[in-house]
Design goal:
The protein has 381 residues and is of the alpha/beta class. It is built from 16 helices and 14 strands. The strands form 2 sheets. The chain has an 8-stranded mixed sheet, sandwiched between helices. The chain is globular and about 60 Å long. It starts with a helix and ends with a helix.
Length: 381
């Protein structure tokens, strides 16, 4: 029922009506009970930061939801509730309720992400806490219409320039304007991000903190223990630190055991003895992967959207690339094979078409969720 409805909505849009989500929310807000919302914005690391935090809150006994996007294989991955993805039956029931609240015109006009954001919040109405991950940007994102207790900021870098701005100041301003009362900044490579956050906080009479200001020596020891238990690479440790800073803000005691089920699939996940998979798809993610894997060579299974700076990404990853195998992804936004091959030639990286996994090779599958989906389906077949 729900899937059929969503299949008739495009996943991506060339233009976005930023007034639509607030207008529709005003009409139905009396029917949506809001829990305490922790909003996550940034360029990279939103999903893992959110899952670390949501898993810990659930382990502490709180009724907790985590809304994340996009999904890899099934839509249900986007709406996590108390340790599990929402079932088809749950989603169909909430879809029916939401349809009854919306006019036909509004139900039709809402974008895929706008509609599913309302769907998630309807499902989460009995929660104590909801970790709500922004889809694109911050200030005008569909998730920004709700009142929030806290905003967490993962690393901000240049991405989605067509929607967010062409330099780091514009992009950071668009994202950070989502702040309401309180914000915690994770590690940022651009000093501009800290400065803009403080300016916005002054205008909104809000409070900004840095992760380093909230964590104690005991917290750092716990982070090391959790990282060892979960085998976290450095960039995932930074996301863990941000999630723990949120627990400190909430004045909640925690233990390393609260994070034992906290890993999110697709973030440098080992899916076989010789295969690592990561859904990063921008230069910042590539730098994190290089730092985590330097010293070892991999066959890179790869493809890219046209709007991604794949030449920079491949140049960053070149020290750990043995060769590239281009996987077919059937999506109108995917770059032409000829242009991708030309880039690989310019970078002097050997390439071929991906056909099947060689059990004697070491693989890194890196790219968008579409690349991960295509690889997993090929692996399954």
């Amino acid at each position: 029922m729900l899937q059929h409805f969503l299949d008739n909505k495009p996943l991506y849009y060339d233009e976005i009506d930023y007034t639509r989500m607030p207008r529709v929310y005003e009409k139905i807000k009396s029917h949506i009970r809001l829990p305490e919302i922790i909003h996550i914005i940034g360029t990279n690391g939103k999903g893992t930061t959110g899952r670390f935090l949501a898993s810990a809150l659930h382990a502490k006994g709180f009724n907790t939801g985590h809304y994340t996007s996009p999904h890899i294989l099934r839509f249900n991955e986007r709406i996590w509730l108390n340790g599990e993805n929402a079932s088809d039956e749950m989603l169909d029931a909430i879809h029916k309720e939401l349809q009854a609240l919306l006019s036909d015109e509004d139900a039709s006009a809402l974008s895929y992400f706008e509609y599913t954001t309302f769907l998630a919040m309807m499902l989460y109405r009995e929660c104590d806490y909801v970790v709500l991950e922004a889809g694109l940007g911050g200030e005008y994102d569909a998730t920004a219409v709700f009142a929030k207790l806290l905003t967490l900021v993962t690393p901000i870098d240049i991405d989605h320039e067509a929607f967010l701005g062409t330099d780091i100041k514009q992009i950071a301003t668009t994202k950070l304007n989502a702040m309401q009362k309180n914000m915690i900044l994770g590690y940022q490579k651009y000093e501009d991000v800290y400065e803009i956050a403080c300016e916005i906080a002054r205008d909104k009479d809000a409070k900004v903190s840095k992760v380093s200001e909230l964590l104690t020596e005991d917290d750092l020891k716990n982070i090391q223990e959790i990282s060892q238990d979960l085998k976290l690479v450095p960039y995932l440790q930074e996301n863990l630190m941000l999630s723990i800073s949120a627990l400190k803000f909430l004045e909640l005691q925690y233990s390393p055991a609260d994070f034992k089920d906290a890993k999110l699939f697709g973030r440098l996940s080992a899916i076989g003895e010789n295969i690592l998979l990561d859904v990063g798809h921008n230069p910042l993610a590539a730098k994190s992967i290089l730092k985590a894997l330097e010293g070892t060579k991999y066959t890179l299974v790869y493809n890219s959207y046209k709007d991604k700076n794949y030449k920079e990404i491949l140049a960053i990853l070149k020290p750990i690339i043995q060769s590239v195998e281009i996987i077919d992804v059937y999506d109108a936004r995917i770059e032409s094979k000829a242009l991708l091959q030309r880039t690989l030639k310019d970078l002097k990286i050997e390439y071929s078409a991906f056909e099947k996994v060689n059990p004697h090779a070491r693989y890194l599958v890196f790219g968008s969720f579409s690349v991960a989906e295509a690889f997993l389906k090929a692996l399954d077949e």
